[in-house]
Amino acid sequence: MSERESMEFDVVIVGAGPSGLATACRLAQLSSDRQLDLSICVVEKGSEVGAHILSGAVIETRALDELFPDWKERDAPLVTPVTRDQVYLLRDDQNAWSLPSALVPRTLHNEGNYIASLGNLCRWLAAQAEELGVEIFPGFAATEVLFGDQGQVIGIATGDMGVGADGEPKDSYTPGMELLARYTVFAEGCRGQLGKVLQQRYDLAAGVDPQHYGIGLKELWDVDPALHEPGLVVHGAGWPLQNGTNGGFFLYHQENNQVAVGLIVDLDYDNPWLSPYDEFQRVKQHPVIARYLKGGKRVAYGARALAKGGFNALPRMHFPGGLLVGCDAGTLNVAKLKGTHTGLKTGMLAAEEIVEAIGAGDQGGSDLAGFDARLRGSWVHEELYATRNFAPALHRLGILGGGALNYLDQNLVGGKLPFTLHDRTPDDARLRPASACSPIDYPKPDGVLSFDKLSSVFLSNTNHEEDQPCHLHLADPSIPVERNLPEFAEPAQRYCPAGVYEIVDDGAGPRLQINAQNCVHCKTCDIKDPAQNITWVAPEGGGGPNYPNM
Amino acid sequence: MKVLVAVKRVIDYNVKVRVKPDHSNVDLANVKMSINPFCEIAVEEAVRLKESGAASEVVVVSIGPKSVQDQIRAAMAMGADRGIWIETAETDLGALSIARLLAQVVRDEQPGLVLLGKQSIDSDNNQTGQMLAAMLDYPQATFASKLTVTGDEAEVTREIDGGLQTLALKLPAVVTTDLRLNEPRYIKLPDIMKAKRKPLAQTSPETLGVTPSAGLKLLSVEPPAERQGGVMVESVAALVDALKNQARVL
Question: What are the residue boundaries of the 4Fe-4S ferredoxin-type domain, all occurrences included (chain A) (predicted)?
Fold first, then answer.
């Protein structure tokens, strides 16, 4: 295969999500203020900015207020302020307790926040960045970190295009590009492919708790205008998740008679028979949710893993030549159920750190350890520290005990309880043998409120070039059938929200079939596989879901 | 020889098209848009003609609001030399008005070859190329699956019902592309940057002296009927009965 060409920039940013775009915008602003004339480039694996963005989302504007104080005049797509918060504990498939506002942990109050599509916010941020002179390249996946001879990061390479399923170049073969930079900022979101490589190479997670994850599934519905209450935010936990499985649903009434509904299932669940997708389809049947969806029409579907380990699992975010920002490190505030504001803020801080260094004559490749102090001095640290016990409390004490502790911690002492709860078992090590757990009998989809997986994937507009190598790498191809199947009934069949993994038997015994073209890039398989045998890598750029307003 | 290529901004072929709740049109809000695939094939063919030496310049033209600049830039990243943007408020003027506007561009630019997609995947009209050729009184070859240019003559293989037809045309001519003409290249990152610096001229229907006519009015858009789920029948007799009395196909 032919040689790769290279291009040089001052800063290369991997991922056009909120944290990557905030890095880009802040860099461009500061570069212009200080007349540094930095060249800034953002690569994004989605076919366009926003195509792979999926979030609730209720957005706190604190970081945005700092980045673009005039965001309203610039027509940022935040138009639906939260008007009312409801929190429910679902007791069974019919009943629920509504929590009085005074008993809800303070972090779950949303006064002043906005219901929005994070994808659209990213599209808007990209437009701001381009106006500031940033080069944004959607459709190009960063698939490789480039290291210099001092072991420092010197940039990334984008993936080759036009390689066949057999690994051989096709007529359309176009080699990837090497994008070299003084500093590279990794903003891939939760469980980033390159972030994972960097965490291992530089041992960034040394001394912190393992990261914990959840899978978020979301649908967008056009609802009956008579049932629509713009600004209403509904959260809840409990049914149908049980026996120590944590998570919760959300339902947000956004503009244009649309409702975003979703379920987060924590990936530390232990029953391999559990299917987050089917739990989501089931929770929509509860009257608390179904009453709004009645007569409505589902218009979009998607799923994405999220990092919820918070403060205790936060790795070092700097290393020679680069920085990790946002959920590539795991800066989501789980107590607020929000990560956009912290993602934006860490991106801005990264930009400030880089400008400070380059402005002082740094030529690149240094370990910007000052980023750590910058984070510690910011409100991101304050928030994440104050909420460090929130998720571990729920995991260890259950929803009532943990909820009570969180109420005490967040509402009465402001996150200053003099101890830290830890959760040291990684999510992939939590599954119990299938034989020791009861299979879950999920109701069949009714085609009204609940649907099958494939018709859902259809609504994610997912597409991959068919003739390309499989982007889900098995370190040992025998493990799914030899180990995962007998021990855990191959849980990939159920945790994958897009039907990528199937055990099929054509008469010659069971085998694992990987339908890689269905993949919605959620990364759950990379996280939850009990053998840690699956590595998710970016497929040919431009592939994956094409989320419209998610 | 100069080649003029017309491109249309359409909803991306991967996106599931959704009808607006009020049935006034399809919903384009925040939906991914792309160059119409047949137009992309036309751009690719023009760039290949230039690379082979048969063409000297590739000019790409599009009509619509400012957003169509994205598609003109994409075509320039593929290798077109310059762009012409005819600014209109409407996203789709209809084939007749588009052909009139393009005819005026052809009169101004005097290309040796005009390449268009055979149809756009949104409205599926398959009219613009034919109308344009008629207005200009140029020879036309539609549904091209192979194109060679030698001197002032083009040889075009067309995909027709039941086989292939080969035509020889005197240039200037209008050729519309079919799916098998070529496979468009992957755009390279440096070419996207170069495309940002290529010239893009802006004009308008008024400047071109064309008044777009509202020939057609869109009354309503309906999605196709949703597929019904299958049923398992107990016996052959039940199947025959279902085909006769429920599906009414026997």
Answer: 510-539
